[in-house]
Amino acid sequence: MKKFLTAFFCLFPSKSSNLFLKILGHKISWKSKIGFSILFVDKLELNKFSSIGHFNFIKVTSLKMDKGSIIKNLNYFKGPISVCLGDKSVIGRLNKITRGFSSITYGKSFLKLGTGTVITYSNFLDLTCSITFGNHSQVAGMGSQFWTHGYVHAKEGVDRIRVDGDITIGNNVYIGTSCLFNPGVSVANAINIGGNSSISKDLKISGMYVNQPLRYIKMDIETTKAKLKKVETPGLLDKVYSKNKIKK
User: Fold this and answer.
1) What is the DSSP letter of 214?
2) For residues 237 and 20, which has the higher predicted lDDT (pLDDT)?
3) Residue 110 above 50 pLDDT?
4) Among 162, 170, 183, 206, fewest CB within 10 Å belongs to which?
5) Phi, psi of 5 (to 5 degrees)
6) Sheet holding 229-230: strands in order across?
7) What is each CA distance from 145 to 166, 178, 243, in whole angstroms?
8) Cα-only R_g, the chain
9) 3-state secondary structure of 130
10) Distance (Å, rounded) from C-alpha 126 to C-alpha 97?
11) Residue 29: what are its φ and ψ, rounded to 5°?
12) Pair 99, 128: CB distance under 8 Å
């Protein structure tokens, strides 16, 4: 019921809607602003000068926006995700952020943007696992994709496993247009990534990285299983192996 009432009051942008959201138990600054958007959120926290623009659809577990942070227009967030925007961070327009529900995913997942970090427009973020951005980083241009899950198939037959992993982006990182991030990668501080790059391994040394040539990597399903840890969560539809440490 709380989610539905939250969504209802957000359809009437005004100071009175802030009052009703406060009554529902959300933490809302009088100096925050919500445009004409649909918010199905269990826990909403909007600090001073934070704002949500128009025609967003946001159906997540929780949304926290620190001072001066902005979600612009026409974004789509859906799934059991906790979203946290640091001071003066920005999610631009037409971004899609999704996560599957139970029987597809397991545990908790969050998207976190540090102070002053910007995600521009028309990017895709898969939150099967968590994605963290440090401070003063930028996803520039358009069309970048962040995938926290992928699959490895057997050489023949129906056997396959899913491989999951968090993505971590450091401070002062610049990501050019149309980059592709694979599950489990991390990017250190002060790195620039050229457009159309595929990031399949950790980037540990600050500097400039550009797209790598296509290369062959010897791999099979059994080798992949041996390197990773199996996720034993009951009810999952796939056989899932994680690049992360399994939390007990």
Assistant:
1) P
2) 237
3) yes
4) 206
5) -65, -40
6) 149-153, 160-164, 240-242, 229-230
7) 14, 7, 19
8) 19
9) coil
10) 6
11) -75, 145
12) yes
Question: Are 165 and 244 a contacting pair, CB within 8 Å?
Answer: yes
User: Does the pLDDT of residue 9 top 90, yes or no?
Assistant: no
List, for residues 193-202, the tens digit of each pLDDT value.
999 999 999 9
The residue with tokens 């809607």 is 17
- Both structure tokens of 145: 């994709």
Alpha helices in the chain, H assignment, sequence order: 2-10, 15-23, 221-227
Q: Which token pair is 195?
A: 């457009």
Q: State the Cα–Cα distance between residues 68 and 144, nearest whole angstrom.
A: 25
CATH of domain 2-240: 2.160.10.10
- What whole-number distance in Å separates Cα of residue 77 and Cα of residue 58? 5
In the DSSP assignment, the letter for residue 235 is T
| Tokens standing for residue 23 | 């009554």
Q: Which two tokens stand for residue 80?
A: 């059991």
> Would you state the pLDDT for residue 213?
72
DSSP 65-115: E-TT-EE-SS-EEESS-EEEE-TT-EE-SS-EEE---BTTB-S--EEEE-T
CB 209 within 8 A of CB 194: yes
Q: CB under 8 Å to 124, separation ≥6 — which residues? A: 95, 96, 97, 144, 145, 146
**Domain boundaries, given as residue ranges, for the chain:** 2-240
The whole-angstrom separation of Cα 222 and Cα 227 is 9
- Residues 120, 92 contacting (CB under 8 angstroms): yes
Looking at the predicted structure, is the pLDDT value of residue 248 above 50? no
How buried is residue 96: exposed, middle or buried, by Cβ count under 10 Å (0-12/13-18/19+)? middle
Q: Give mean pLDDT, residues 169-175.
A: 98
φ, ψ (nearest 5 deg) of residue 4: -65, -40
Candidate from 5-9, 104-108, 168-172 with smallest mean pLDDT? 5-9
